[in-house]
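Objective 1b. Sequence-to-structure analysis of FIST-like protein.
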Amino acid sequence: MQSALYRYTHGDFDRYKTSGAFEEQNAALVLCFSSRAVLDDTDLYGLLHRKFPQAAILVCSTAGEICHTEVTDGSASVTAFCFKHTPLVLKSVDIADYPDSFEAGRALMTSFDPKGLRYVLVLSDGGKVNGSSLSEGMNSVAGDVLLTGGLAGDGDRFQSTLIGAGGTPREGLIAAVGFYGDHLQVGHGSQGGWETFGLEKAVTRSEVNVLYEIDGKNALDIYKHYLGPEADGLPGAALLFPLAVILPGATEPVVRTILSIDEPTASMTFAGNIPVGSKVRFMRANFDRLTHAASNAASGAVAGPDFPPQFALLISCVGRKLILRSRIDEEVEAVDRVFDHRTLLAGFYSYGELSPLTSGGACQLHNQTMTITTFYEVE
């Protein structure tokens, strides 16, 4: 496998200095993570198609672009790949063509030929698609195929997101690249690093991703009580205090970000489903633990001692970026250190991360995590 990393700014593609030898006209796959500003003002897909004429091109809007160890806004991070022994296929569906995100996810996975399919990278619209239901739909037909990816972003505006799959990026698209054969070794890791506080409680009333009651009491009132003076900063302060959720039948928690609060109904809307019977605890940010979690995610993402990552895809949450602010590069640099500065890094800040929580587990939606997928092609 060969790969080359570029940053697109001000009309130019600047190639990252440690990219290896690469023939652009032979690229098989291009992953482009771009700010909305660039996508709105530039025919970026057209530029990429001319630069990499044979490649399957996947474009995703972001809440921040990762170009090796730097996090930027208002640019595009572009990675091109050549594979020697790994066929791949690009597929997409439009959420508008299906009754819900579950069926869209199911249809997307069904569109792949299952013979020899080993891994699927999924990039989805982050505003119109329910990430929890999407992952459940994909899992319903994926079998033992590994799934990772993320939901597109729109900075801190949370208005509309764009995905492009072999064409101009647009809203509502869910795209995926299927990788075939046994030569590509893929590892994954996902960690949050948040600190829990307060007692564990049970969800007693909810509808999909809207939470109404915890332990039979108004959820918003309980949330404000635990936040204390910080509650005056709602709804913005909610990004600093997500929930740890153990879904029914699960043993390990996932993190759920609060997207909005509704005072008239005293409810909270989350970036992921919170079914009745879930166990929840409140969480708060700890800068050092967030960075340490990124290191742990990197350590867990290595496919094996014989497969040092040639490329690592980093998908982290916009909430982490808003919290870490000027220290945001630290979590990316921590990943680079784990890989001994030998692995090309690229990715984006998202509205949700898709990955199994543990090795061999099913893909699920995460919030406020650093999720890493590593790639190594065996000769």
